[in-house]
Predict the 3D structure of the following.
Amino acid sequence: MSVESCITHHICDCLAAELLRLRAEVAYLRARAKQAGYCPLGSERDVGRSANAMLEYALGGTEPTEEQYPLDGDDLAACVRARDHAPEHLQARMDRILELYRRHLERGRIG
């Protein structure tokens, strides 16, 4: 196989992987969009101000402000469910924000 063929093959593999990643994002965002205007309470909720701010960050947006942090354990649980439903490639960025959220709530319990 020539060098050009190897490079072309590598580029095709990279593009195929990126396409799969983008399709996963689109599917996840379409599922969330179907919930627009509907916010179930209890163990099904995976939307809300803090969950949406975390997702915005995962998609390349800015880090959530403290005003967007969860107010309580129920809000944090919704964030965890949002993370669990997200495509794998977004979860690492979401994990970083979940840790901030957890520390924030823990400080509130101590202080």
